[in-house]
Amino acid sequence: MIFIRQNYNLLFIIILTAFVFSIELGIESFEKQKDGTYLADIYMLNEQPLAGFQLNIVPLGLFEIQTISGGRGESAGFNMSAGKKGTMLGFSFSGAAIEPSKSTHPEENIIFTLSLKVIGKIDEKTEITFTTIMAGRGGEQLTTIVQPFKLFSKKIVKKTK
């Protein structure tokens, strides 16, 4: 007990570092297209190589995923697929990984772009997030924090040309 009292700061730092996030995930941009669909650029800031992912868009039943493509996932040779109901998978058959981010700018770290069709009710209160399973090279689960995206935030939504 005396040891704990004397080394409280050290123990606090050790416990805190166990909860450091190795991945940040979020929506960098959300843009309405002429056909009524939306393009969502999903960014990932990662400190460790990513060998695979499984994501679910939340809330369920709001969007139907049309396509998933591009970004760092495609550049790394990932096979990426998405179910219409919101589940996305990405991995490489050759064992390739998405290397750690070289910058902290979300726009420079797009992991993929989603084409989304609205099938539910969206309004100014709508917020999008993801449930995640992110795997490192050895198959270990990587700690991830997801930044919620407020759908009609004026500072983030881009206008179509």
List keywords for this structure.
161 residues; mainly beta; Immunoglobulin-like; 5-stranded mixed β-sheet; 5-stranded antiparallel β-sheet; 12% helix; globular; disordered C terminus
Task: Give a nutshell description of this structure.
The chain is mainly β and 161 residues long. It has helices at 2-6, 8-17, 71-75; strands at residues 23-32, 38-46, 52-58, 63-69, 79-82, 87-91, 110-118, 127-135, 144-146, 149-150. The chain has one domain (23-150): Sandwich (Immunoglobulin-like).
- Describe the strand arrangement of the main beta sheet, using strand numbers: 4-7-2-1-9
Strand tally: 10
Query: Could you tell me the strand content as a percent range?
Result: 35-45%
CATH C-level label = Mainly Beta
- The number of helical elements comes to 3
Stretches with pLDDT under 50, minimum 5 residues: 10-19, 155-161
Counted up, domains total 1
CATH-derived topology: Immunoglobulin-like
Shape: globular
Mean pLDDT: 87
Structure, explained:
- This protein is globular.
- The protein has helices spanning 2-6, 8-17, 71-75, and strands at 23-32, 38-46, 52-58, 63-69, 79-82, 87-91, 110-118, 127-135, 144-146, 149-150.
- With 161 residues, the chain is mainly beta.
- Strands 4-7-2-1-9 form a five-stranded mixed β-sheet. The protein has a five-stranded antiparallel β-sheet with strand order 5-6-3-8-10, with no helix packed on it.
- The termini are far apart.
- The protein has one domain: Immunoglobulin-like, CATH 2.60.40.
What are the SSEs and their pairings?
Layout: H1 2-6, H2 8-17, E1 23-32, E2 38-46, E3 52-58, E4 63-69, H3 71-75, E5 79-82, E6 87-91, E7 110-118, E8 127-135, E9 144-146, E10 149-150
Parallel strand pairs: 1-9
Antiparallel strand pairs: 1-2, 2-7, 3-6, 3-8, 4-7, 5-6, 8-10
